[in-house]
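Run log // design_07
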């Protein structure tokens, strides 16, 4: 019997401004995120994780992989460079179109995928980003969450992409750890949902992760 998967896509900003403590904190947060999810039997059975990074280029650093087989790479940053969020979103939409199993007479399709985006700036590829907004909204994600990290982020631009936008004031280990803990709770809630699609209801974030209204 084919296991019904819950695909989870992480799009992480690795532009030059993330270099140093911020990207180190992201790596720590990812390790905690993975460890927490692996303690949940529902997540361990269904979650498949994909990580895409974006700076002046887009990299798939982890293809869609079963949770128990994930070996997290170390996320690194160039010394400087732009933020190609639009290209990253187009790449993820291409992956979703290619990788997601649809329901057929022979099998049940995957759960609707979840997309979590973290960026500390604004898209450098504005035209590609604006075009990607429609693609993401048509891709039938169960939930799309965008995190605007630090003072240079532009939450209003992310609001054009999704209603679920949160912000982090501090780009340190505490802030990113709290964000990834919250993502863990959101993913776990989706794996235990009895419905036929991933829930769009998100758990309330901790005080360090503020909802952008």
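design_07 sequence
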């Amino acid at each position: 019997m084919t296991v019904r998967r819950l695909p989870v896509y992480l799009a992480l900003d690795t532009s030059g401004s993330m270099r140093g403590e911020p990207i180190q904190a992201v790596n720590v947060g990812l390790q905690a995120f993975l460890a927490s999810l692996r303690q949940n039997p529902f997540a361990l059975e269904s979650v498949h994780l994909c990580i895409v990074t974006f700076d002046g280029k887009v990299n798939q650093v982890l293809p869609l992989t079963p949770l128990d087989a994930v070996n997290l790479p170390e996320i690194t940053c160039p010394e400087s460079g732009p933020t190609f969020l639009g290209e990253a979103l187009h790449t993820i939409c291409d992956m979703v179109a290619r990788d997601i199993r649809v329901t057929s007479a022979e099998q049940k399709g995957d759960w609707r995928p979840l997309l979590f985006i973290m960026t500390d700036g604004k898209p450098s590829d504005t035209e590609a980003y604006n075009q990607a907004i429609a693609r993401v909204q048509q891709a039938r994600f169960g939930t799309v969450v965008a995190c605007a990290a630090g003072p240079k982020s532009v939450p209003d631009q992310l609001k054009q992409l999704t209603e679920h936008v949160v912000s982090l004031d501090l780009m340190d280990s505490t802030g990113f750890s709290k964000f990834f803990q919250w993502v863990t709770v959101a993913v776990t809630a989706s794996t235990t949902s009895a419905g036929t699609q991933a829930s769009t209801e998100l758990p309330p974030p901790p005080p360090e992760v503020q909802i952008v209204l």
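The chain has six helices and seven strands.
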